[in-house]
C-alpha cells in the first residue's frame, strides 16, 4: 500500500509544484485538501486541477463560519494587533487549517501532512505548531526546506516542465494570501522597501485617494464585544464580514504597507488589505473606551499585545492563549452598544457611541452646575495624589541646605566681576 500524505493545497504555484514533487520524488499518494476560509476561489476548478496534477483525492472543506466565530471574533474581542499595524489575517487562518488537515489525515490514515510554507516565513511555524499540538505522531513534510528548488522562478520552470497550469509569471510574481479577513501581498518589487508600492497591487480596495468624495457613515451594533448589526440590519457572521469588506474597500479603508519582524528573525515587507476588519476593530475599540474602566483598559492593552504575539507566532492552541481568552471574555461582558463610524478616503474613525453600560456620565463631567460632584473634594485628592512629589521637594531642600558648609570651596562670580575677568583675558 502506498504511503499517504495530506497536502494543504490552494491550487497556486507552490502547492501545485509540491503536489507533483511529492508524487514523483517522494513516492507518496497525495490527498489534496482545500480549506475554504473565504478566499475567492472556484473550488471545483481547484479540486479538478489537483486531480489532474496527480492527487488521488481532493477535499474541499468550507470552514468560513467556524473561522469567523471561533477565530476572528476572538481576535476582535482581544483587540490584538501585531506591531501596532497588522490585524493578523493570515495568522488567524493557519491554526484552523492545521486543525482540518489533522482531521482529514486521521480519517484517511495518512502518515504525514505537507505544506507549502517556505523555510524563511512564519507560516511553517504556525502550521507545524498546530499539527504538533493536535497530532504529534504525524510526520510533517516541508518541501521548501528540503528540495533543490531555490526560488519561485525555479517553481515556474518546474511547473512548465510537468505541464502544470500557472496563474503567475516571472514578471508579476507577488505571493498572495487571501481569506475572509484580508488579502496580503509580498514578494516581487515589494522586497525592496524603498520601492513605493503601486496601486495595481490592490485586489480588494480602491486606492484611498480615489475613494468617494462624500464620507459614508456606518453604524455597528455589538453584544458582549461581538458585532451583529450593520446600519440596523442583522447579519450572520460570515455575511457581516463580507458586507463590511465591500463597504470598506469602496473607501480604500484598511490598506497598510509595513515592514514587520518575522518570528524567524528577519524583517519582511508586505501590503495588506483588511477593510472590514479595520472597521470592526476601530468600532470595537471605541465602544470599549465608553464602557471599560481605566485600569481594565490599561491592563487589557498589555494582554492584547501578548495575545497578538501568541497568534502571530502560531501558539493558538497553547494554554497561555486559553487563559488570555478567559480574561478577555470577562472584559467583554458589558461591551454592548452602538458605534457610528465615518469612512473617507482610506480613513475610518468613530464619531459617536452609546451603550446601556456606558461609564460616561454627563452629570459628572458637565461644566455647568451640578449636584453630584463636590469640586472642593478635588483639593484633598490632589494633596494625597501629589504627596510623593511634595516629600521629594522637601528632601531636596534639606540636601541643598547641607551644601552650605561647602561654600568656602567654591569661587563664585557675579555679572560685574565676571565681565571684568573677561576683559583681562581679552
Mean pLDDT: 92
Identify low-pLDDT runs. none
Rg over CA atoms, rounded to whole Å, is 29 Å
Helix content: 40-55%
The protein's oligomeric status is single chain
Taking the sheet with the most strands, its summary is: 5 strands, parallel
Measured by DSSP, the beta-strand proportion falls in 15-25%
What structural keywords apply?
single chain, 426 residues, alpha/beta, Rossmann fold, Argininosuccinate synthetase, chain A, domain 2, 3 domains, five-stranded parallel sheet, five-stranded antiparallel sheet, 19% strand, globular
Task: Provide structural commentary.
This protein folds into three domains: 3-63 and 85-176, HUPs (Rossmann fold, 3-Layer(aba) Sandwich), CATH 3.40.50; 182-292 and 334-360, Argininosuccinate synthetase, chain A, domain 2 (Alpha-Beta Complex); 370-426, no CATH class. 43% of the residues lie in helices and 19% in strands. It has helices at residues 13-24, 43-53, 64-78, 89-108, 123-134, 152-161, 237-250, 275-291, 294-312, 319-331, 362-365, 377-385, 387-402, 415-425; strands at residues 3-8, 28-36, 57-62, 112-114, 139-141, 175-178, 183-186, 216-223, 226-230, 233-234, 255-261, 267-273, 337-344, 347-354. A five-stranded parallel beta sheet has the order 3-2-1-4-5, sandwiched between helices. Helix 1 (13-24) packs across helix 6. It is globular, with a radius of gyration of 29 Å.
Could you give a short description of this structure?
With 426 residues, the protein is an alpha/beta fold. The protein has helices at residues 13-24, 43-53, 64-78, 89-108, 123-134, 152-161, 237-250, 275-291, 294-312, 319-331, 362-365, 377-385, 387-402, 415-425, and strands at residues 3-8, 28-36, 57-62, 112-114, 139-141, 175-178, 183-186, 216-223, 226-230, 233-234, 255-261, 267-273, 337-344, 347-354.
